[in-house]
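RECORD TYPE: protein structure
NAME: Tyrosine recombinase XerC
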Amino acid sequence: MYGYIDSFIVYLQTEKNASQHTIKNYSNDLFDGLAYFARELGKQDFALHPVEANAALFRSYLAFLRQRKKSGATISRRMSAWRSFYRFLCREGVVEVNPLLRVGIPKRDRKLPRFLTLQEMEAVIKHPDRKKILGARDRAVLETLYGAGIRVSELVGLDITDVDLNRALIKVTAKGNRERILPLGDYAVEALRFYMHRIRPQLMEKKPGRIDALFLNNRGGRLTDRGVRWLVKRYTKMLGLNAQTCPHTFRHSYATHMLDNGADLRAVQELLGHARLSTTQIYTHLSKERVKRVYDKSHPRA
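PREDICTED:
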């Protein structure tokens, strides 16, 4: 089955413009199931043919995942990966019927995203020491994460040409190579201007040659998502905030604070780059203060 999986991955890359993160998840999910099928059928995994995996085998795999105490989100993602894979095989004429059509896939658990309060967010952003080179860089990173509400992959993918400080705009490349133009607030613009004019040239001196990346590490190379996760963890730990705070928490906080202050849901959807409004709607359930304000403003006897 290896060859068919390889063809599917190429299809995801070329026709679907899937991100490396998505491709990695698909690969991991498919090979996890393949290992199980090989054990159940008593064959080597490379010798399996897609027609050998029927609906009964997938139901058995589903039960196996539940026995391993996998979360609903993990189970749903793995079964969805296999369903997409067999949809591809049907299109290519390798199999006639998608066996996953006869298997009930559990719905993904919808956990409410964690977010920081406005006071916590301000404390984190202001914590880096701007008198230090990396402190000034970190301040610009945090201001951009929160000021634009972008994903960490979008942040580290920014090049110097993607930033227009005069117009307070940045261009980000999202999932599937989709581009969108986002506004920046005054605080983010000021932090970026200081970083780009005073700090970035000093970091560039540490590595010879041209570098287009906006955010650089202490060796002069492009800052990685791992580096951003590390610095977020460092500052939140110093402040005693939730240990599970990560770069995506800034995105959750951005959306929550926008809606708290009356932003239109459709506008927030566009800013976040969500394909479906339902993905954005989860943020409407987050703030008790917002619910209370709406009640006090709207109910005739509040």
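COMMENT: Residues 154 and 174 are 6 Å apart (CA to CA).
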